[in-house]
Write a structure and sequence with these properties.
Oligomer: single chain
Distance between the termini: 73 Å
CATH topology: Immunoglobulin-like
Number of helices: 1
Mean pLDDT: 92
CATH class: Mainly Beta
Helix content: under 10%
Number of domains: 1
Low-confidence stretches: none
């Protein structure tokens, strides 16, 4: 048994030290932002026929997801517009309001608006309505706004 150890010791002395290798994993991130409409939303008429909106009974809010890489984005909404049947009241007003899980909170507005209270992964809930003191004609309606993402 001692002979085996004595024979192995010289062999260990002849072994060369192991080389070291640095391993680096690298990458570059470019700022980007993707907006996705998860739910398009639905308008419903109020009981007094003066509001056609997503928060009325039977209506549904739109939901939009934000996936950003890099810097925290600012989300901007254009002033809402109305798609309506020909001859619909020119005095009617489109409005939107929105909240987000990241902290955005915009009350109903007919103007363009933006929010920087956004996280890199966020979800917006957008409600829309049309206000008309003259009521609504039969036909298809929509409240339209465009959301953009700036970084």
């Amino acid at each position: 048994m001692h002979r085996k150890i004595l024979i192995a010791l010289p062999l260990l002395a002849l072994a060369a030290p192991a080389d070291a290798v640095e391993i680096r994993l690298t990458g570059t991130l470019l700022s980007s932002c993707v907006l996705s409409l998860a739910t398009p939303g639905q308008l419903a008429l109020s009981s007094d026929a003066g509001v056609y909106g997503s928060e009325q009974v039977g209506g549904l809010a739109a939901t939009m997801t934000v996936v950003a890489i890099g810097t925290v984005p600012t989300i901007t909404f254009t002033a809402p517009a109305i798609d309506a049947p020909a001859g619909f009241s020119p005095t009617a007003q489109a409005q939107i309001r929105y909240t987000s899980l990241g902290g955005s909170n915009q009350a109903y507005t007919s103007a363009a608006s933006s929010s920087s209270a956004v996280t890199l992964l966020d979800t917006f809930t957008i409600n829309g309505r049309i206000l008309s003191s003259e009521g609504f004609k039969a036909g298809s309606y929509a409240v339209r706004t465009t959301a953009t993402c700036q970084q």
